[in-house]
Structure prediction request, 124 residues.
Amino acid sequence: QVQLVESGGGLVQPGGSLRLSCAVSGFPLQYYAIGWFRQAPGKEREGVSCTSAIDDSIKYADSVKGRFTISRDNAKNTVYLQMNNLKPEDTAVYYCSAERYGSSACAEHTMDYWGKGTLVTISS
Prediction:
């Protein structure tokens, strides 16, 4: 059974940090690109970051470059999103997703599997 389970969300003050985890099961992580997406209240879902299955390439949205870092541990079947210097506009439900043999493009419509999301709230 394929599962992606996000964790690590919560309430943090502006300027704070969180590390999200995406634990995968039911498929070999090393063959899948993993993308982090987010959906803020009243807005469409957007891509945040993506790590490729076919090379070492990584992509970040312009809004998070220099603040967020994606990493993967294939042995632990887990992908992480380290989020630093968080801003109120980072408030959203964060989802991880997987695409078999995917590149770092991580287009939303090409992702094969999705988690249920974890809520991140940035507020003082």
